[in-house]
Each structure stands twice: as structure tokens, then as C-alpha cells.
Specification:
globular, alpha+beta, 10 helices, 4-stranded mixed β-sheet, homodimer
């Protein structure tokens, strides 16, 4: 039975998982959940998914939640091609790069956070944009320094094949571009991004290529 | 050579790693970095750590960053006692619970986020507290539902021994208590918390027990 991915075309966490599935060549059925319409909070969705978040991956009887945990699950159940290196220090480096995006940038800039700023803190578009760009500049600055100063960076974030860190990076750059963030200060990062989006696995996972786009 | 942990007594991400080190019985040297004084941004710290964040774990030549990546590294290099179950679905469940805290609650409530709210969005104590409690209530609601509705919950988040999810939960509850969040709606979660803090490994990791406390 094919895996089923609960997804939303613009969710960058879902985008990470779509890339990982494509890199591993795993066929899946896309089940769109419209976040802007609040479908993730409806009982129909919540009764299967206690976290009420997207993405979620259905694999037979299992429902796997949280994008990072889903990618690790795919790595353990479908090891080839690997998205993590084999040595413990290399694996830690790739996870740390991934978590820099998943824990230091994305949560501050996702839909429900921006909604709170607008609704409860009275922020207009300018305030939202300044907030958004602040966390992107701060987080990608740390990301760029990590790529520049720690061993392992090559064509991709770690070595010459795309992996878990690249699955996290690319959706974050798409978001940053949507919010017109200045990406000129991050040349190594953007070089990796360019090499990723030249690949079919990344292109097929892009928001514009999803069945629920528009 | 003993491992060295760059830590700050109140950092909940450092607290997670201190618990994991204690659970695995790994001796380490604590190297305090005073976050309120901004020591994490000083060149002396940044030259070793391109992310400029706490915690960081020095293991011989390696510097491991990001609390989740550090715990996975400890799990791979010091497998006993395990902090993750052996089956892929169970491992995914524990990681998803951990990431629910690390990605959906903590980033919104950490020091630099609250600083931005105060400095750039003009929030006073009341505004900060409302923000803080909102994300705790939302995130712990999802956590409680996950413990209630998915198989695996026992004395601890997953089974009858403490693991990675418990390492994430306990520091988050300490923070929630500091901000006087209402924890009554989360009885299963608080039951697990109570069983964790009865253990020496958790107690020794508490903020008040750290060399840099006060």
C-alpha cells in the first residue's frame, strides 16, 4: 500500500518531507489539508492526528508526525539512498544544520505565529515583514557560518549528495524569497540551494508543482 | 577525556542535554555561557561555535550543536541505556513528541524571541506573559492529546523508562511553571513529569543545581 502524505503546498515542513520521499524514490499519495482554511483543526483531521499539524505520513497502520521525525523514519525504513552520513559526528552535523532551520527560523515564521502577531499584537504588513526578515537573517547567518567554518560542506550541505540538511534548507529559502529577504549575504548557502533545485527530486516537491497549489 | 558541555543554567535546551548525559551516566565538565550577558555572541565563543548558541557539546575534537542532534549523537555513541525504543514507529513517536516541544513551543518562548517582542514590538510584561502562556497552552494541549491518544504512553512518555521525549518535556514544564502557566489541563503530561523529577538524573540537571545558578 502506498504511503499517504498529509500535506499543504506552501507548508515548508511538508515540503521537506516531499523532497525526502522523492530523493528516496518512494511513491506516495498526497492528501492536501488546507491550512489557511483551518482544515488541520477540524475534528475530521484531529481524530487521526492528535497534534493537528501538517505534515503527517501514513504508512500502513502508522501515522508518523513532525517533519524531522518523518525523515528519520524514512531513513530507518528505506535506507537507500541515505540522507544522513554514516559517521556519528557527520550525522550530528547534518541534524544540527537541519534543526537550525527547524528550531531557530521556521517556528518563528510559520502561519500561526504570523497570525498571532497580526491579531493580538496589532502588527501590519511592515511589522510582519520586519519580524520575518529578522529571523531569516539571523538564522541563515548562523547557517552560512556553519557551512563556511565546519568541515563537510561540498556540493551540498554535507558532501556531494543531497541529504537531510538540504531537505530543510530548500523550503526555507523558498519562504525567504517569498518574503523578499536579502539572500546576498549567504553565498555558500545559495550555491547549495542552486544545486538542489536543479534536481528533479527537489523540483517535483516545490509548492507550485503540488495538486493543491492555487 | 571528559566531554565538555557549554551550558546555561536556565537554558531549557541545555537542560535537555544535561538530563540525557545523566541518564546515560556520562561524566562531563560544565562550561557556563551567560546568555543574559550575551556571552554566546562574543568572538571568544563564536570562534568555536558558528551557531553561537547554547548548548554545545565538546567530545574530543568534535563540537556537536543543537540539543536534539546532541542527544541523537549520545544515543549513537553511548547506546546504553537507550533513550529511543528499538522499533522505527516507536522511535518516530518519541522524536515527534520531542520535536513538538523543540519546534512548536520552545522557539517561540526563548530569550531572544521575548527580547524582540519587548524591544521591537513594545510588549510589556503582560503582553509577554500572554504570548508565553498562549504557546505553552497550545503546544502542551497537543502533547497531552498525543500521550492520551497514541499507544506507548506508560510511566514515562514512551514506556516504563525515561527517554528522549522526557528529556524535552521536563525543561519545558520548568519554564511553564516559571511563567505561571495553568498546567491543570494536562494531567497525563504532569503525571509523567512527576515521575521524571523523582529521578536523580533529572534532579541533578535542574537549573538550581547548576554551578552557574544565581
Amino acid at each position: 500500500m502506498a504511503m499517504k502524505l498529509y500535506t499543504y503546498f506552501r507548508s515548508s515542513a511538508a515540503f521537506r518531507v516531499r523532497i525526502a520521499l522523492n530523493l528516496k524514490g518512494i511513491a506516495y499519495e498526497a492528501a492536501p489539508v488546507h491550512l489557511l482554511k483551518g482544515e488541520q483543526n477540524e475534528p475530521r483531521y484531529m481524530q487521526h492526528n492528535p497534534q493537528g499539524l501538517v505534515p503527517a505520513l501514513e504508512d500502513g497502520e502508522q501515522l508518523i508526525l513532525q517533519s524531522g521525525a518523518i525523515i528519520e523514519y524514512l531513513e530507518e525504513t528505506h535506507p537507500a539512498p541515505p540522507l544522513l552520513p554514516t559517521d556519528a559526528a557527520g550525522r550530528a552535523r547534518v541534524r544540527a544544520l537541519s534543526q537550525l532551520i527547524a528550531c531557530e527560523i521556521h517556528p518563528l515564521n510559520n502561519l500561526r505565529t504570523l497570525k498571532y502577531l497580526r491579531k493580538h499584537l496589532g502588527q501590519d504588513d511592515d511589522g510582519i515583514n520586519a519580524w520575518y526578515r529578522h529571523w531569516v537573517a539571523d538564522g541563515l547567518g548562523k547557517f552560512e557560518r556553519s557551512l563556511a567554518e565546519t568541515a563537510g560542506t561540498a556540493a551540498f550541505c554535507h558532501g556531494d549528495a543531497p541529504g537531510m540538511a538540504d531537505c530543510h534548507l530548500v523550503p526555507q529559502i523558498f519562504n525567504a524569497q517569498r518574503y523578499q529577504c536579502d539572500l546576498a549575504p549567504f553565498p555558500i548557502t545559495m550555491g547549495v540551494f542552486g544545486r538542489c533545485v536543479a534536481l528533479e527530486a527537489f523540483r517535483k516537491a516545490e509548492p507550485s508543482q503540488q495538486p493543491d497549489a492555487n
